[in-house]
Amino acid sequence: MPREHVLKTRSLVAGAVALATAVAVQLYGAGTAAAYGPSGPGPSDNSAHGGPILDDVHNVPTTAVAGNVTFIDNVKGVSGYAALNFINYDKYGHDFMFANGTGGLAIWSLKDPQHPALVSTITAAELRLPGDTQDRFWEGENMTVDPKRKLVFLIRDPRGFGGTVKTGQSGVYIVDVKNPWKPEIIVFHPIPAGHTSTCINDCKYLWSVGPANTGTPGHDPSWNGVPVRVTDIHDVKHPYTFDRAVDLDRMDGTTDYVHSVDVDKNGVAWVSGEGGVRGYWTEGNHYDPVQKRKRVATAYDPVPYAGGTVDPINPAGTAFYDFFDHNAYHPTEKVGSFDKGELLYITNENVTTCSQAGEFKIASLKGSYDGEGWRSTPEKPFRLELISHWSPWGKEGSATTGSCSAHWFTVNGNIVAQGWYGQGTRFLDVSDPRNPTQVGYFRVPAGQGVTGGSASAVYWHNGLVYVADYNRGVDVLRFDGKLAGKADKKICWNSCDK
Amino acid sequence: MRRRGAVRAVALGGTALVVSGLLAACSASDEGGSVPKPRGEITFGVLAPLSGDLAERGQDLVDGAQLAAAEINDQGGVLGRQVRLAVEDGGCAPATGAQGATRLAAKSVVGVIGGLCEDAAVAAAKTADATPFLVSSTRADGLIEAGLPLAFPMEGTINQEAMAAVHWMGYRSPQRVAVLGDGSPASRQLSELVTDRIKADGLTVSMRSAGTTGPDLAGLTSTVTGFEADFVYWTGTAEPGGRLVSALREAGYTGYFMTSSESDSSDFLQTAGRAAEDAYLSMAAGPRLLPGAAGWAARFKDRYRRDPGRDAMQAYDALRALAQAVRQAEDTDPSKVVDNLPRLEDFTTFTGALRFAADHSLTYDNYVIAQVRGGKLILASKLRTD
């Protein structure tokens, strides 16, 4: 029996016990607000969670292909999801999980971390703005939250709700989740950017980025994509977006599509997109290698730190996706033989045939600390050294068809947990950065009664792994392999203010 | 010396307002307390000081509302009904504001616009507490603090003016900011709001106030030069502000200089002379500054034979907003109209989309940045991206 089948059988036992059967029960019909206060009527008053819970859909992946991974539970909420985030509530003594996707926002109590309990939702219909033609939120990748003020930010892409990049409305919904049973939309704030967003400086500012150039007012016709837009959210009732973008000229001198911002443990905001990954100080007094002077860094006028892109992995590659660094993580620690903070872990997204799909990359920042990445031109391109790259193509647990590109990941110690669309969740040991090695996987092919998986983002969280899946909702997993490196007390990604 | 508070005087471009005589016509058109009929006319109230020192501004406000009503009627009215205005003198004191509101309520107006003095507007809103009231020309702080459920101020708060200044500083990337004031309560409040915020962003800031009777210009100037400031923000009144920028330039200061809306006056430009060149002002948007208001200003001038002031522009937008809310509500019921005011569809003022926060403050206020160029004020930034 192939190894993967042995693992699958073992891994699914726990899940099968936990879930007697796949259930699909919606107690309340369409049109009924699915938010209940702890003191109000609810379908299942479970005080153990701090309030009532809603019935949810659980899809048991009996077809799963897994290695070193145990499936624990699956929850659906309102739809599939692009991203998750977590907030701890002293009041309740445990975390709540937030997910956003095409169906809107769903919130679960993690009183029992293995079995999220749905407590409330804001549906896409409830997020519609005047002029919208569909109840389809799009799409909220790299969801950001303010754990102190208990706020969730739903970033709206212009392609949501029936819009297009040229006609749609982008911006952010700011949602008050002080009471997770009663999330309240404080405001929808228009921003001329809206693919992902990240809290900056303890969530006093929001950096919103992407997508491709919308051609709407505020966009320079010379831009190939939307860079970083800075929004002051000190006062969430009155957000203010600066009419000056950040991280311009990123693709060898041309302003291009920024896709993600991820803050590291030192507070450097790493901006990923077409043309590479560049880090910025957003607080404090720092030497600016571009302006050649020491100055105060702010969220609206950050100081460049380091970064750039690497030569395409595909030797013939010169197209957009060859330089599309989708998101990144900067480990501030020493890894392997590399210096402390030298490495950059990068997702290259490229949705193409599986053998050439986007990969996970590791690059060295050496040689980029003097503004080189800001002076790169087509004639004199600056490139980081590529240390290694990895793809599931041909690896254990992989299919040869379906969607195969690298996507969002988080890091615990030296284990990268990453979503790969149809190739599921992959666990990579990067203790030797020159040789990333798969140490676990979980992939869900479609089958009778089983929703096939498309893993968007994978989150280490309190000893478990939660997967935001575009099709399945959220899968709760346990990595059964050995954790390499020193386990992180705080899993740092997106805003890192957790 | 002008101060914030009860009255926020707004420059009218030096053009004397001509009382148009339409007031009598307006008053004659009121409905005398009868309940609006299902068909026929919709009556909106206009509350403004029509006597005393502020009569010219009050008339400007009324004229702006009249122009809006005329254009709405030319386009078919609201819900198929013609719009009429009932105009009342609200004075500039709480008592007169309340009396004016009482008279309008007796005329069963669908909603009220206007309000030029803060205390009078708050009293009027409290009195006419069953009528939607778009308060067009007074700072919002008192109305927001009062928490009046049917009142919607169309001006910003002092905090919003402070943030306009802070955000504009952000565009200039200063490192060391001097916040200077004249010691008055309003100046001090604005200075503190700005200073606190700049500090929070990590910039180095020095705040200093001088006496209201005669700012110590030499002292303030030495503060700026000794501190090596690269940005100066003046929160005091216009004339001393003009003298300050002159003294600073004479002392060799080459950094940015910005004033608050208190310097939205010819006094600043006249006192500063050439030293005012390139200075910035954070101020409420008016028709003189907004290129998008040019066509409207021409129509106004064609009708009234004079240039419009800010109050006319604000009243014009307020009446249009109120009419839009009625259209969306498909009803004149106050609660339905109020429900629609925070979510006006495809509705913009001369500064952009009009949106209200849950506390009824403007989500995007109407503070803009002007710059002195060639001795005149021009629009430097609307501070908006929507």
Please explain how this structure is put together:
The complex is a heterodimer of chains A (498) and B (386). Chain A has helices spanning 3-18, 124-127; strands at residues 23-24, 44-46, 51-53, 57-58, 65-67, 69-75, 83-89, 94-101, 104-109, 117-123, 144-146, 151-156, 171-176, 184-190, 196-200, 205-209, 228-232, 240-241, 258-263, 268-273, 276-281, 285-288, 293-296, 303-310, 325-329, 343-348, 360-364, 383-390, 409-412, 415-419, 425-429, 437-443, 455-461, 464-469, 473-479. By secondary structure, chain A is mainly beta. In chain A, the strands form 9 sheets. An 8-stranded mixed sheet of chain A has the order 19-20-21-24-28-27-26-25, with no helix packed on it. A 5-stranded antiparallel sheet of chain A has the order 5-32-31-30-29. In chain A, strands 6-35-34-33 form a 4-stranded antiparallel sheet. In chain A, a hairpin with a 7-residue loop joins strand 17 and strand 18. Chain A starts with a helix and ends in a 19-residue tail after the last strand. Chain B has 13 helices and 14 strands. Chain B has helices spanning 22-28, 55-74, 94-106, 118-127, 141-146, 158-172, 185-200, 217-227, 238-250, 266-272, 294-304, 310-329, 334-340, and strands at 41-48, 82-89, 111-114, 133-135, 151-153, 176-181, 204-209, 231-234, 256-259, 280-284, 348-349, 352-353, 367-373, 376-381. In chain B, helix 3 (94-106) runs parallel beside helix 4 and helix 12 (310-329) packs across helix 13 (334-340). The two termini of chain B are 36 Å apart. The A-B interface holds A 130-131, 186-187, 189-192, 204, 218, 229, 232, 234-235, 237-244, 283-285, 295-301 and B 159-160, 163, 167, 170-171, 173, 175, 197, 200-204, 343, 345-346, 353, 357-359, 361-365, 381, 383-386.
